[in-house]
């Protein structure tokens, strides 16, 4: 089966006339491109990167390298393959580096354990499940998250149920060590089959963990944590950040905890809960809101969207009294709906305003004006103002 291929023209990328929706208006104040070189969400110095208290002693006292997100993924995969002979890496075009180069050069060093597969997502995931049940720790790459749906049956009816079905017989029968990686999210011109964010579909399934990193340092630690986890993990990599997000990343191997949210910025008036790429939108919006409204906004990164850190989110909302959830995927039945329901149940007496969701519109992403489908700085900014003025 041939895949639909999106061709990106350098001339089109550079021309505001070719893609007017990708450029901001001349006098725009809010919806301007993210400056990844200065955003506080990335570590712009080795000192900042090594100050993370979640890092083990060896990593905190080591060195860093300034790399982007796909290079951080590559570093994590390389360490996993080198340190554990049970680790396998496979998928469509993985051996030559993959579409986004995440597995670049790995097949050269690990010839027997990094290999290409046929174009069959059901076969890729089915093989990964069988390998995990036999004691291996397979990392299966789905070329785009949009392509994962043929494997949905394998994920829901096999991978997610293995540990429950095994009961006290656990061990390799639990399918632990299985990681399914996939690039997800919009890039501005991916259209119907290269722009989807289907994470909420997997958050309905007991037995799976769903992780979405926001940065290179997070991607490295969370991926190594996922590979070490004894539950099957869906690891969704925001494709728009592969090259855009560059920061100092500890050189030593380290794991970050799954299921634990992180407070990226303390605040006292409004809590914004998000994950992945939209966190950069939220940071830009809250910076403008704090300047204009003289308020204080707390920003929380879920990191793991299932099972997510309810205690951390409710603690934040009980402090601020206001909650906004932001995600790129569609509004209907999204991660935001679950967070909003939990906040309403656990923080009702402390809420000063209705819980708000700022999410992608409930429509398919078309090629033209794709960026209008997902939350922008203005929408998040307006939600902060609405929460404060309620």
UniProtKB/TrEMBL annotation:
The keyword DNA damage does not apply. InterPro entries: THDP-binding (IPR029061), Transketo_C/PFOR_II (IPR009014), Transketolase-like_Pyr-bd (IPR005475), Transketolase_C (IPR033248). GO terms for biological process: branched-chain amino acid catabolic process; generation of precursor metabolites and energy; response to nutrient. Its cofactor is thiamine diphosphate. It catalyses: N(6)-[(R)-lipoyl]-L-lysyl-[protein] + 3-methyl-2-oxobutanoate + H(+) = N(6)-[(R)-S(8)-2-methylpropanoyldihydrolipoyl]-L-lysyl-[protein] + CO2. It is an enzyme of class 1 (oxidoreductase). It holds the Pfam family Transketolase_C. GO terms for molecular function: branched-chain 2-oxo acid dehydrogenase activity. Keywords: Oxidoreductase. Its EC number is 1.2.4.4. Residues 67-244 form the Transketolase-like pyrimidine-binding domain. This is 3-methyl-2-oxobutanoate dehydrogenase (2-methylpropanoyl-transferring). It comes from Baudoinia panamericana (strain UAMH 10762) (Angels' share fungus). The lineage of its organism: Eukaryota, Fungi, Dikarya, Ascomycota, Pezizomycotina.
